[in-house]
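Minutes, structural biology subgroup

Action item carried over from last meeting: produce the C-alpha cell record for Carboxylate-amine ligase (Escherichia coli). EB confirmed the sequence was re-checked against the source entry. Recorded below for completeness.
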Amino acid sequence: MGWQVSLPIRTLGDRRPLAEDTLRLLEKIAPFCQIKIGASSAIEALHRQVVSSLNEAQLMRDFVADGGSLIGLVKKHCEIWAGD
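Output recorded by EB:
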C-alpha cells in the first residue's frame, strides 16, 4: 500500500489483553485508512466491536446455549456474510 505502521515488539512474558494491542493498532492506522483508502467506517466498526468486548466466538456460544442449532448458526452467519 505504500505506508507503514510500526508498533513496539512484544517480548516473551509480556502479557496484555489482545484488545489493548488492537486498539493501539486501530489508532495508528485510522488516519491512513481515512485518507488513503476511505475505510474510516470499517475502522470505526472494528473499534466499537473491540471496546464492547463482543466477540464472534462468544456470540456463537450464546446462540447455541439459547437453543439455537448448529445448522441455524451456519444459516445465520451465511445471512450476515451475504449482507441480508
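Discussion: The chain has two domains: 17-53, 55-84.
Next step: EB to file the record with the rest of the batch.
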